Fold each of these.
Amino acid sequence: MLKDDNRREMLEKVLKDHNYQKSALLEILHGAQEIYGFLDKELLTEISGLLNLPPSQVYGVATFYSFFNLRKPGEHIITACLGTACYVKGIEQIMTAIEEEFHLKRGGSTKDGKLSLFQTRCIGACAMAPNISIDDVIIGKATKEETIKHIKQILGEDKTETI
Amino acid sequence: MNTHPMKLKIDGVDVECSEGSTILTAAKTVGINIPTLCYLEGLTPYGGCRLCLVEVSGTNKLFPACATPVASGMEVTTQSPKLHEYRKMVLQTLLAERTHICSVCIANDHCELQTQTNQYGVDHVFYERNWSCNEIDSTHDFLVIDRNRCILCTRCVRACDEIEGVHTLDLKFHGKNTDVIMDQDELWSKACSCTSCRKCAKVCPVGAIYVEGENIEYTKDPQVIAFIVERRKCLK
């Protein structure tokens, strides 16, 4: 993963911006995730080496916050809000429907790596519950049918592009 | 160093101690015993087990004695019916969180959690138990970790970091998924930073980390940390 592309330079720049300070670990992890899209063990080892921190501590911090992805996410990311309001309004059923329709599990991706399904805590749009975000576009008052239609549309667009 | 003596009252007894000491250490100087689990002399206080909660007059809040610095004029109560109930509750939640079955545990009779539980007369757990299924790692030559017995006191993590200085152990995730890990969640045999110093097994208050084939009586030696810290002071 850490090839000689400019991503490595970008990471170095993030570290330099924070003066290689151990206390800036969280900001650096944020920056690294922005550059690479996810944090795998190799990258975490690299960061722990550059910051002179124990690998276990860096791994502990990265796993503590659910915002960090430790596995490569799919091309399209669906994030379901598991806040109280969304939960009451039936986000669980929508998630189960997505899982069955696209054969994936929450927290994971489809086999072809096209789609990932994640869950998150309240996104602060409770008035529009249940909320589900598809590639950072939030769909409020979501229903099973509508959500699945949206996802199929996005996946379909890819196909037409490649043809 | 500023060594203004601090005067405070613990359970009605006048105590004089130096600035910067905690309620727990101050109580110890006059022989008042406050129950603890995650606290270990020589390690940084963690304040995680909440067993050492004490009442301080003038506020409704309870304070962890191990991590609260003393202040002049403080009036501390370490034993009261309210605290007794709280401590019983803490012990029950600890027991309910993972799978603690004394009769099949290697640390039976040498377990700090069991000792405290007996002392507070906790013979039932009034919470639904999690019966969580956590991983056991016995890949190391002689050290074994059974995470089902872990109470997440982080004594091992702190001893590994502060005393041995390798920080092989840490915690992953948060909430009910928290677990002790070696390096980046590797198997213990693959954790290259581990020096096999056994300190984690020595300080573990329960039977979560132990030495395979060794009598737990010989393994457990939490006082060794305070001893090492004391001796290292002479080096400076």
Note: The first helix of chain B runs from residue 23 to 29.
Amino acid sequence: MTTKHAIAGTRFIANETQEKWHDETLWMVRAKRDKQSRSLPEWERLRDLASAIKMYSNSHLDTLLEEFERNAVANGAIVHWAKDAEEHNRIVYDILKQHGAKNLIKSKSMLTEECEMSPYLFSKGIDVVESDLGERILQLMKLKPSHIVLPAIHVKRQAIGQMMEEKLGTEPGNYDPTYLTHAMRRHLRDKFLHADVAMTGANFAVASTGEIVVCTNEGNADMGTSFPKVHIATFGMEKIVPNREALGVFTRLLARSGTGQPVTSYTSHYRRPPEGGEFHIIIVDNGRSDILADADHVKTLNCIRCGECMNTCPVYRRTGGYSYTYFIPGPIGINLGMLRNPKQFADNVSACSLCLSCSNVCPAKVDLGEQIYKWRQKLDRIGRANPEKKLMSAGMKFLMERPALFNTALKFAPVVNHLPRFMVYNAANAWGKGRELPAFAKESFNDLWKKNKVK
Amino acid sequence: MSSKEDILARIRQNTRTRYEMPDLKLDAITYEDKIHTFIEQLKAGGGEAHLLQPGEKVDEVIRSYYPDAKRIASNLPEIGCATFNPDELSDPRELDGTDLAIVKGSFGVAENAAVWLPKQTRHKAVFFISNALVILLDKEEIVHNMNEAYRRLADADYDYGVFMSGPSKTADIEQALVFGAHGPIRVTVVLV
């Protein structure tokens, strides 16, 4: 039984040039992160603080969210609470309907992806326009993001140029990134100026001030909210931070970790409604409150969605975001998928070498690799263990518990070295796929020891 | 039960250990020459800095950086080269086609060249819609790092505010860095 991740990964690997580029480019981003982190002597202290603040805030969500709401309402915002994706999408649609809106300009938000909001709004006749350049490219190509921070990392400039020729009338054959970016700037400028309602996610929501903070390099969230009279901001409840001083810790870590920049070009604080307009804020649960009770996995709520665990992951870099079956790929996506629906998303749990590089670089110290290991222990319980590996493990256990039999088996093990390939590398040996077995030694360590051959 | 009550009840029911808020005290990095670090960081992020020299006039400096700018927006009384006051426009859409906007930063941050810009014009679009942005910043108003910056903002009141570090940028096409994704293509900080 091969996982869906392994099957899709094999397809990604088939294009060697693309795989190499993907691997090296993401590693370059990781190297930029290292340079940034080493520029601050207090880097590890910042990570400790970020983790401790999140442990505090995620264990005080009840009081912090109410504090946030009180302050946001005092600022003139309208606060909504959504239990799940369906309620979230309905709230957004109701606001749009109230204002007779036909289109929505939105900045990148993993939460709206999680809620599958755009397809829902399209089905209601609303034109949803993604304003992040990479997201807009993917939307026009009818593709999904393959990375949470670098959404179009898997698409080549030629493909983007050809799409833009067809849809936006750019010069045929001009695939220069600057030319294409500025053509997209003109295209989206028009969308910004004619949007009915603007929507953003939030990187942080500050309890003590009732403001939300959005970080972008493009300025698309700011452009988007500069013209319409209505701004809807939505955030998953673990995005809460207690106050601005705590926010300072996260703004120092976020971009350094994610893209290797000292800060994003824009760290925007939205506090009061636009002149003569409305500011709606949606606080979303959608399964997060269940995670609070799960001691093994509660730390996933520390995640600030920087994307670094993808950049550093040897499996992600070499198999690409589309190889995962959950909409968030990489180490954090493996864990969030399992928390969403373990049976449905168990295929991703194999996409990990347990090198723990992700755990070692995570700015909020989510124990990503350790959690994946824990999920593997639970696979059998949820009925998703690999049957061949299970059979093999049962056989090994039988053997290990019987020393005499084990020693006899060991004596005959070198026979495997001379077996024809089809007998060793076949469907029954799950570990033989994509790997070469080491040759068995002629004599076992036990025998060598007894004959005093071990120096 | 309303969704709010329902969510809060679930949070209370599922919360296990309640952790303490950590002490945020931190020996954050400081720089010997904050102005120099700020300028270096700004350049690294694609921005430009001009340290005003004795005898130089701000208007002339701005003109020397942007000799071709035709539509220049500013509501700052000390700026003579502005061609219009953006606060006189009732619709922010009318700002489209602005070549240059000139605004004032409250303070800068040495570690990342971010400048704090609280909303100071009728339309916040002024910060984003023009092709270029000039930020006037008092060179004495530079803090070392973001921790210090947010302590400074602890009780600040604003409708909207942004830490801006250099021009709008993207690397969404094959990780190739391009300035001017949506906002200003050029940002010049004039340190006065």
Note: Chain A touches chain B through 91 residues (CB under 8 Å).
Amino acid sequence: MNISLSITKSIHDWLYNIMPEGAASIVEMVLIGLVYLAIFAIAGLFLVLLERRVAAWFQLRIGPNRVGFQGLLQTMADALKLLSKELTGTVKADKFLYNLAPYFVIISSLMALAVIPFTKEFHAFDINIGIFFLIAVSSIGVIGILLGGWASNNKFALIGAMRSGVQTISYELSIGLSLLTMILITGSLQLSEIVEVQKSGWLIVQGHVPAIIAFMIYMIAGTAETNRAPFDMVEAESELGAGFHTEYSGMKFAYFFLAEFINMFLIAAIATTIFFGGWLSPFGITESIPWLGVLWFLGKTLTLVFLMMWFRWTFPRLRVDQLLTLEWKYLLPINLVNIVIMAIIVWLNLTIQI
Amino acid sequence: METTTINNNFKSEEYFINMGPQHPATHGVLRLILTIDGEIIKKVEPDLGYIHRSIEKMCERDSYQQIVHLTDRMDYLSSHINNEAVCLTVENALELEVPDRVKVIRTIIGELTRIASHCLWWGVMGMDVGALTTYFYGFRDREMINDIFEETCGARLTMNYNVPGGLMFDIHPNFVKRTKDFITHFKTKIPEYDRLLTGNVIFQKRMKGVGILTREDAISFGASGPVGRGSGYSCDVRKHHPYSALDKVTFNEAIKTGGDSLARYEVRIQELWESLSIIEQLIDNIPGGEHRVTTKAVIKLPKGEFYQKVETARGEFGVYIISTGTKSPYRLKFRSPGFSNLSLLNHIAVGGKIGDLVATMATLDLVIPDIDR
């Protein structure tokens, strides 16, 4: 019997015993929301710390290691500092949009987090159009960035926002198409079902060549989608200062910052789910202990997160026009051809089944 | 009837932004007034004066020994070479022959300064095109040179090691050994620089064919140093007008004919190798003798005009002294390489994107206190 399942089940039964059905389900929703908010905050803070330690490792430094064990509380302290800071704004800024923008960004990534299957039972929202939902929801974030840049009344922020709009909208195509390539194998958009299909081999193995191409395109586009180096045109600190969030301070800045890291986690988590078998262990070695699935999932995801950090601390930044050339002249045509190849492979049953 | 004047400098789709004086890409308090159409640069107007300290005017008040330390504060990454320039001018005017030991040490230290400056430039160059890790690699190696300097002259940035007539102190006993250690260390690190940044496909794309400066323009704008040599203009003062011990060594003048940002980049990387080779030729046979010729406590130059130019890490640095025979110069003019190199920024950056401007400016290797003085 699964531990987490039994806990949630007993809470569920207890709630339905002490209050009417409607109220109980509302309370449950709030509880789940709170759990996910906690995951959001903790994962965000942990990833910021991880990024700083990884960066330090690449850069011959030590990184934060004083606050708490190995610096584990460093980002907590930073968050407290940001909470206590004054929220400044610019004169003549569009106050309403200016204040609204961070919430768009954060809500978008929080909603996307809900459909991520950490393991078979640890899954808030298992809908049959999971991937579609993910792509739709994650594109809301760009509205926040555009609004933030526009409403800041700062030309640097505006340039950053314009770049972001161009970049995110372009690369969303590649993300969508590369995921679509993989869906040809699974025949389902439901994330839990996609993972189940991979019991006979992770999709990157099943789909071999086109799957590897799709994975590479997905990682490039995913890095661009999260506005991270080498695609950090939006912030480009040597060109635009801090880009679209130049004028944000305190917790509003922290929202943008956290959302960026959660988006990176999401991109890696989706890649894990679609290409690397989600919570499944290789060759089913820990299949008898279901809760280990969470660890497998997180392990795979963090490996991919590390890969993205590796990109960031190694590569120079592309120029805006080179970024668009890469997407429209290379990634998109390759992607379209790749889908056709994958369709032929699936049609002729050439997938590798273990 | 009163008419309102409209600023006709802007076309309807253009806008301007102030890049600087507080901006991470300008590496100091330089303000660039950019006229931009979307992302495309239409005009770059540098606005100077934010760090003007009237050093030339201060020189008219100070004695020649005091002038030397002011030059530390100009191009602070080439402070040894700046010091040397003033000392050479004064020594030439006095017709003072310094010992060979002084000449060799001055040359070694000058080349070490050039390497340190290029290390810092390489780190910052990477940072400007978005590769943040290069900064720490460049600083790691620069730090070793700074340690050598600290041991010998007690300072890490504003050295003030040269004095008219020689050197302030003799070199530290460890100097030769540590310099040799640095050479062996750094020879393994320049290939690492190439692996990390030069060979990177994104970096090549950002640099190639961007910010093109032709040889004719380089000459007419008065470009010097790696900027001029990147355009195929042979302008190395060390080669054409050797000073100190530079006539005793053999080295190649790093020249590339590309004229783009990549050529300027490659010139500096090649200069690292050349500087290492110059130091290697000299470090084993530093002649013995005095480290300083005793001069009078108050140096008075003869009446006349004196000029001496040297090659700093950024290009040709000239000192022009008009003396009326008193203890201070009547007028002293510095010819700083950064000022001329900045003047061609508008010429080569127009038509590029904002990202190109930042990358191009990084290859000019501007030090703002050198421009403003």
Note: The longest helix of chain A spans residues 21-58.
Amino acid sequence: MLKQPTPETASLVHKRVSDPLPVQIFLIGLMLLFFIGFIFLPLGLVFAQAFQKGWSVYLESITESYAVEALKLTLTTVAIVVPLNAFFGVTAAWAITKFNFVGKAALKTLLDLPFAVSPVIAGLIFVLLVGSRIPFGSWLGEHGIKIIFSTPGIVIATLFVTFPFVVRELIPLMEAQGRDEEEAALTLGARGWQIFAKITLPNISWGLLYGMILCGARSIGEFGAVSVVSGHIRGQTNTVPLHVEILYSEYNFAASFAVASILVFLALLTVGLKVTMEKKFQKNSSHH
Amino acid sequence: MGLFQTKRRNILPGFGLSMGYTVFYLSAIVIVPLSMIFFNTFPMGWDPFVHAVTAPRVLASYRLSFSTALFAALFDAVAGLLTAWVLVRYRFPGKQFLDALVDLPFALPTAVAGICFATLYSPVGWLGETLTKWNITIINSATGIVIALVFIGFPFVVRTIQPVLEEVEREIEEAAHCLGATRWQTFRKILLPHLFPALLTSSTLAFARGIGEYGSVIFIAGNLPMKTEIAPLMIMSKLDQFDYAGASAVALVLLLISFSMLLVLNGVQEWQQKEYR
């Protein structure tokens, strides 16, 4: 005779299809080992090295004028790059998700292009672009506009590197949301700008913020591309990561890691924000 | 539905404006600057180009970049699959904390990662000291480069596999179990084939990223000519000597390889979507 499955036997089945406890412990241990070697030790090392000569040296290293100048330059770059790429991201996502046109797939691939480019090449192309061999570059030079070895060069290289972040976040989100709400608003007599401000923007606000955080994190940390265009002029064209490199190559490890600890702090903040956003995100999307 | 959507008319306003700005910005920031690589390489002529990109030091750097990125991607595939599995399937204290930290390699500036690994594995470093006693050198070697690249590529693999693994229906595993399959058989014959496309995509991403990576690698690599010089560093040193044509020739080869990998990846993704829809 067949027995009715009781809750007890059902839970027994579930226990059996999940991995046995020793296997679970072994795999968790293996993962922890990886995390210790690749995440915890490097993080711990930054703080151990930063404080090896005590608090006073630490504070001195991060408040010294070159470090402050570097931080200012990095923050300036972020303040220019993130809004520009965010504005582009919204515009491009609007064009791509709200309309049908030929070549949409190709355009999407082009938007991802900077991801496939080495940071060093990202810097190189701007040196080539405004290097005096190209007509446009010599024109800029003649009119006294300096791009390479100056702030605009750093900004434009960072724009390139962080180009896809916002738009990549928005396209899948807006594709999933469709265009019914916007079209309904249109038939009710709303104007284009009203539709965008009252319907689209509130719908995508979390995704937009999320993309901007990713974009900002990468702008702060970009090294290869900026390294090529900056010229490493202390107090002028040195971003925080470049400052870390210079201090390190001068064997001034305590100062180098002290400045690096600011970047670690910002990275941890980014990771924390990302987790918070994802939770909001899920809540938001479950409403739809 | 799909048929209906492609025939749907564009009625919303702002297409011209948004499309125009998109094309303008894309050209100004990405297309025109990238085309400089071609414009600087073509005037070289074929023979000097071949000469520049097949110089022994350049070839050695390509070989090093590819082999280290490949090893790192393979390692990431295993470590990433393990991490995704543990984070999706098991319950243990501190799980959410570890889950959040998976993104750290992405958020941490590459230069910081670089000096961390270089210090960690230096002969007087926390790990380097012990390893030196065992006659293992990590710093100034290809192994060091692989370690830095494993760190960089790790989030790509975990974050791609996690959602796929979350969507796997547990009933399939239960059915396999009822039919007498062992746990390992279920994993190999049912789960692994299902996860394979995501595993392939994400490790290709890690591989592509690894070939171009610069900041995290140069500190631990030591940059010894013919031995531990990566391809992006060759571009850098050609630039330092004001050899712009040579730099763009080396860059062109690297770009063509990255782009063709991106295309293959797109192909794989399309095939994957067709398979599972």
Note: Chain B has 14 helices and no strands.
